[in-house]
Amino acid sequence: MTRLPGADDEKKRRPWGALAVGGVLPLAVIAVIAATVSGDWSKGATGKTSSHGLDTSGHFLLATALILSAARLGGVLAEWVRQPRVVGEICAGLALGPSLFGRLAPDAADWLFPQSVQQLLNGLAQLGLVLFMFGVGRELSGMRLRGAATQALLISQASMLVPFALGTAAAVLLLDYAQDGVHSLAFVLFVGCALSITAFPVLARILTDLGIIRTPVGRLSLFASAVGDGGSWLILAAILAGARGSSPVGLLVNGLAALAITLFYLGPLRRFLVKWSMTGKDKDGTTTMVLLVVLVTGTAALTASIGLHQLIGALLVGVAWPKGNRKAVVAAEHLVSTAASVLLPFFFFGFGLTLDLGALQWGVPSLLALAGLLTLAVVGKVIGPGLVARMTGMPWRPAFTLGVLLNARGLTELVVIQIGYQAGIIDRRLLAILTLVALITTAMTSPMLSLFGLKPDSAPSDAAESSEEAELVGTGSTERG
Amino acid sequence: MTRLPGADDEKKRRPWGALAVGGVLPLAVIAVIAATVSGDWSKGATGKTSSHGLDTSGHFLLATALILSAARLGGVLAEWVRQPRVVGEICAGLALGPSLFGRLAPDAADWLFPQSVQQLLNGLAQLGLVLFMFGVGRELSGMRLRGAATQALLISQASMLVPFALGTAAAVLLLDYAQDGVHSLAFVLFVGCALSITAFPVLARILTDLGIIRTPVGRLSLFASAVGDGGSWLILAAILAGARGSSPVGLLVNGLAALAITLFYLGPLRRFLVKWSMTGKDKDGTTTMVLLVVLVTGTAALTASIGLHQLIGALLVGVAWPKGNRKAVVAAEHLVSTAASVLLPFFFFGFGLTLDLGALQWGVPSLLALAGLLTLAVVGKVIGPGLVARMTGMPWRPAFTLGVLLNARGLTELVVIQIGYQAGIIDRRLLAILTLVALITTAMTSPMLSLFGLKPDSAPSDAAESSEEAELVGTGSTERG
Known about the structure:
Chain A is mostly helical. Chain A has 21 helices and no strands. Chains A, B: It comes from Streptomyces doebereineriae.
């Protein structure tokens, strides 16, 4: 503090003056004014509503806290029974909806989650979902194959095409579950697509927990899921373009637009992003973060406008986003992990709201459809790639371990079937059936692996080591899929 | 890859078998099924709506991309004219609302931001706002004073009480701008409160840019703004409790509840959080992040239910959140910086939607009120603390530099006046007037400092050094206030 020389005397006296000017005087002014205007207190008492009711904002915040707590509780319970966390989080979302909570306590559910609040929560879910899909896109393009290319490609195509074929075959018998007005071809292909999905992030998490992410089987399963899912998303995009039932000319225009957008994103835009992220202009990294969100949401809106689903656009940005630059990678992992932890539970909640598992008449046909689709999903994913792996020289045991790993469908499957439901392809009953297929195939992965002698506890030191590996392939930041 | 010995011959032949099983066969199945069901393509064409219309999700994503782009553009333009970024972002929010965009192109505004989409965007704004307030709470409690305690406290109280007193005095003449049914005392105190706010984060940013954050004036201004704003929020809480017009008994119950909550959060809960964050149970940090969001939203709902504003609860969690543990600090900065960059622009947008600056009849009374409040706001913040600083031994020039610094109100002021508007204290006209006061006082800080010989370019090396210091006091992650 700069002080004037010889000002010590003054200094001792001045605090009181300063207190008077800065404290007592203004307080006196406030007190006099308050006394002047406070004569009519009783008048004010009639004004506003009761203080114990929550307004929309308050309800929204309460619902936010509840949904996040329930999701985390579900995740912890799932880990406790040696299941991927996402299985518990999805179940928590279903439990908060009409399937359980709304059935047991409909009044409480209406009070906690009124219609006006559901819209606010939906905003969080939508943002979380496009950021999740951005993360899926990053993972698909981030895979690098080391050695055994022919074998890996053969296994990848089998892991996608075999369940796809079984799904389309089954779908012919399930045409009753298509929504009105949708073309049978779109429906049949969609069901095939739904069975062919593997959840890359859940798979990476399981491999890390088992300590086998660095083994040939681990690497192969990750590669196969990335290639297979890439193919499934392409087919899904084609189905959506067709399912909207435009004229052939409209379809052609939309298809060409989609092609042009894809080429632009993977060519010039990708090069621009790489170049831009190298310049180092963005000192605090916030511009990169905002650019990412703007690109993801803007592209999502763009693809939605040409008849593809918005999530395809978000996926495309993930594929195009630079991988080599530290700032770009940090921004992406920052947003994807925040979205996975804090925003995706609202998607599970919204999903649970649309799905009343109990209200569906679970008659013999539905149960048969569930049993059939579940069997085909498991057989297609386990036998198809397993057989091909065996035929290309892998011993039986790792070959079928691979198949079991590729059977985890997780969250990615949920996203796919919700897209199909929203696009008017599958009806509410098939949505419920495929939700159960997704949950059951994900939940059965760990127990089935135990049958092959693989248990999380059997390789604790490996697991710690290999979690670094998971970071390298870009999956360390999220355990969802 | 484990291979059986002598299996080389087989290996060369088998790929074709594998290709047949995993690729050709399933493709053939899919092709046959597709051909079977695709006879009735024309039927499907009548089903769904046109492919070029965006549904609500598409509109939401488009609006998200637009709002974030506009905010970033505003921020860049503001920095270009040597203003804090937040001034540009607020202006961008106002420009997208009925004040500018809605006036120039009402049809385009309706199409881009339909009512259904505004609700979705509002969810993002609400979450951003509570996380911002959490950050404000952290900063208030993170201040440590080094030396000159008496002087610092005297300046702090003057920086809060002098503009407060001037605001209450002016408010007596402005009772016409109170909402119907609100008590005059609440209104008068609220206007005082609104003038007494300083924006801590904007202040820290300006100090860093000027390279004076380590000087006595820099430290003193930060301390004074933290203490002063703490006091202002306490008074605001009391006003809100009273303004809702409950019965005296209800007020007493709510007041006791607020006291109990505060004591619980700053005592047992704070100790629990510190202890919990030390255990290291949360390996990937996501549990800490979810815990933070649940605490912030849950507490916000709790304080809203006892008649205080939800943002007071979010502030309280910020004060109670542990500061010493790395994981807790990382989670907090992660979320606060994401909220500041990606979510707060939606608050500015929502704020801009409620405020039509042009539709207010800017007659002589409104302009007089604006001029008067603006003058009192500046005089109170500059003269009050400046005089007290001078009286406690500081030379004239740094004393008034301090006053000018404390005059930046920024985003914090916007939050306060929106609370007052929502709580039914001030009307729409005074909301507009105080918004302009907030913008003008923030924007005038840099030019006024130039008058005192302080320019960002005059100390470039200092500025680089002192940005570390800004991190130390916990303000490096956000430049908003």
